[in-house]
User: What shape does this take?
Amino acid sequence: MNSKSSHKTADFARVGILARTLAAALVVILAVAGSALPTDMDQELTISFDEADVTINDGVSVVRGNVELTQGTLQLRAETMNITTQEGRIVKVVGLGSHAAPAAFSQRIEIDEPPLHGTAETITYLTNLERLELTGNAQIEQPSRRIEGGTIHWNAREGRATARSDNGGERVRMIWQPEKEPGEPADRPSEPREQ
Assistant: This one.
């Protein structure tokens, strides 16, 4: 076997290893370790806001101005929220944001881990399914990993996220930061340049 042939074989082997590594990373980021704390969905749902157009019977109420929804460790923030009720229960909440001020959520997955954070132009919370749908410049992140796409579905019950790109827009991206050793500084100072 000549030198060029062995280099091509090694390159193909590296590409195969890289593809398997990326596939494994995708599975890991999409199946976040654990799921929402089991008590979150058993907690009362509270919404605070500046002004509202409230429907007395079942239907859609609109609340505006620094709106915050809290249920257990789940927090959803947006400038405007449309709240749908059926049979006296909140079944759907749509948080509306924009590029400048996206809707945002956070939720603690494990009691001793940092919370999961997400932002998008619109976040829809389906209360009975324990599911969030982030649409428009969507992203979900934890300290060492982030996923970005046109739409991301977060299933709190299963601790699972799925993502897809916008029609004709940018592709889904995963950013995976290497783990730091205990005691290692977050950012290493750069070496001084000689002049």
